[in-house]
Amino acid sequence: MFILGVILLLLGLFLHITILTTIGIILLVIGAVLFLLGSVGRPVAGRRHYW
């Protein structure tokens, strides 16, 4: 999710499409939060790791 967010963010910035930029930022934030929760050992959705 983190990588997809970065790709969409970059595509939105280069192609000047604001909806891609917005979706990219949202996915980037969600991916970062899930990664951080998984890396500190907190279970996310009943799993020890996010992936």
Q: Output mean pLDDT.
A: 85
Number of helices: 2
Task: Spell the H/E element sequence.
Answer: HH
Whole-number tally of structural domains:
1
What would you note in describing this structure?
The chain crosses the membrane at residues 6-38. Keywords: Membrane, Transmembrane, Transmembrane helix. InterPro entries: DUF6131. This is DUF3096 domain-containing protein. It comes from Dactylosporangium salmoneum. By secondary structure, the protein is mainly α. It has one domain. It is built from 2 helices and no strands. The chain has helices spanning 2-15, 18-39. Helix 1 (2-15) packs antiparallel against helix 2. The longest helix is centred in the middle third of the chain and has 22 residues, at 18-39. The chain is rod-shaped. The model has no long low-confidence stretch (mean pLDDT 85).
Q: Which features does this protein show?
A:
DUF6131, mainly alpha, rod-shaped, 51 residues
Describe the structure concisely for a colleague.
This protein is mainly alpha-helical. Helix content is 71%, strand content 0%.
Fold blueprint:
Layout: H1 2-15, H2 18-39
